[in-house]
Design a protein that fits this description.
alpha+beta, 2,3-Dihydroxybiphenyl 1,2-Dioxygenase, domain 1, eight-stranded mixed sheet, 2 helices, 8 strands
Length: 132
Amino acid sequence: MLTQTAMNHPIVHFDIPAKNIKRAQKFYEALFGWHFHKMAFGVDYWSINVLPESKKQTNAGISVQGGMTPRFEESQRMVVYVLVESVDEYIVKTVKLGGKVLVPRTKVPHKGFFSYCEDTEGNMFALWEEAA
């Protein structure tokens, strides 16, 4: 469910692609104290625990989470996920405003739906809709 916050559509997740997962994890652990946990999705994916257990919520009341994946293309960059009420509605808005849809609405079992899009300046971002 979309939570009413000071910012209507907050960033709720980010993914970091890495050519060398162990090296990248070591870097972020040393730099920010982040911890990584291998997920059981059937693909190489590590969740990133960016906040101590006592501070799982941001000031806006939305939990910010991260993940790390292998870099599949040299041009692949970090992507942020923006919480929306409906991925389908925001895909339409994105295109209407001059953006592009790179990956259509995709289901993440038991979690929600996402779509990768591109803004008018060539920056990739993701739309995120939580499962009902």
